[in-house]
Write a structure and sequence with these properties.
320 residues; mainly beta; Immunoglobulin-like; five-stranded mixed beta sheet; four-stranded antiparallel beta sheet; 10% helix
Length: 320
């Protein structure tokens, strides 16, 4: 993938360079809330590429997104249509998250910080990286992107949508994204950026204040090594509401867990109470299992801040 100052081994004229920079600035302006509220790209990055080059673009914000469930079709200036998924040209789909200390993470608008939680996941930005066909006709082109079974895209853009790019003459090549580490060079392994198989446990959207919870989760120890199970717990920085900025601290919670080789035990404590919309965790396991880990909630007790049981039923959603 070419960088801002890379000419891909060829020569660009001034008009092409200006068009590239203007479109890049337009993309950044449209996605001013990048990562926090998620967005979809207007143009690819770079928005000028040769046949065979690598481009990337933002496809919204989705915890459900995978390389396998996002369709993308290129239509070139000659009217040729290429299904990039069928051609095996889609390199990766992965999610980006903001620095936990980012200004927008704490002091952005209420909408930017809340909207993703309203769709059932933490703030994140979904990115696709794909190679272009080597026989694409130069000229204005478009990518048509469609979600297959994805219901949690927080960008607010309906599926399908289009992303523009300009294909210029020349012979491109897939970018290897060579990186340097410990005096060695190697190409990027996109698989390491992609989402591991996981089960999301959520507590609903009814604004109930949860003070504590205790869950027992079963799994098939013949399919997954218990030592390969881990928990990921997103944390919200949302405070107040649209009219009142409120104070920080109302989404704090402590999560403790362990497994005994047959069951996984999760205990949650939130003495001040936490809105159920902001309470969730993921059980992740290594990819490539021979069978299903059969994760299921065996028992769940949920309590209010007064210590009494409340009517909140945790839901487990598995994504292989």
């Amino acid at each position: 993938m070419c960088g801002i100052f890379c000419n891909c081994g060829g020569s660009w004229d001034i008009e092409a360079i200006m068009k590239f920079n203007n479109n890049l600035l337009g993309l950044l302006a449209v996605c001013g809330g990048l990562v926090l509220s998620a967005c979809t790209s207007v143009n690819t990055f770079p928005n000028i590429a040769r046949p065979g080059d690598t481009v990337s673009f933002m496809v919204g914000g989705s915890a459900q997104a995978r390389k396998e469930n996002i369709g993308v079709v290129l239509t070139d200036a000659g009217g040729q249509v290429f299904d990039l998924q069928s051609l095996g040209l889609v390199r990766s789909v992965f999610n980006l998250r903001a620095d936990g200390r980012a200004i927008g993470q704490h002091y952005g608008s209420y909408f930017d910080r809340y909207v993703s939680w309203g769709f059932g996941h933490e703030p994140l930005q979904t990115v696709m990286v794909t190679d272009l066909p080597g026989n694409a006709v130069p000229g204005p082109a478009s990518l048509t992107v469609a979600f297959n079974g994805i219901t949690d895209n927080s960008s607010g853009v309906s599926s399908p949508f289009t992303v523009s790019l300009e294909i210029i003459p020349g012979s491109g090549a897939p970018e290897q994204f060579i990186r340097h580490a410990l005096n060695a060079s190697s190409p990027v392994d996109f698989a390491q950026l992609e989402t591991a198989p996981n089960a999301q446990i959520s507590f609903g959207f009814n604004n109930t204040s949860v003070g504590a919870a205790a869950l027992v989760i079963d799994f098939d120890e013949t399919a997954v090594n218990p030592n390969g199970l881990n928990l990921y717990v997103p944390e919200s920085t949302v405070r107040g509401n649209y009219s009142d900025p409120g104070t920080f601290g109302m989404t704090q919670r402590m999560v403790y867990w362990h497994q005994d080789g047959q069951n996984l035990y999760v205990d949650i404590i939130a003495p001040q109470g936490i809105d159920s919309r902001f309470l969730q965790f993921y059980i992740v396991h290594p990819p490539g299992l021979a069978g299903s880990p059969a994760l299921s909630i065996v028992s769940a007790q949920v309590y209010g801040t007064d210590g009494n049981p409340i009517e909140v039923t945790p839901v487990l959603t598995y994504s292989p």
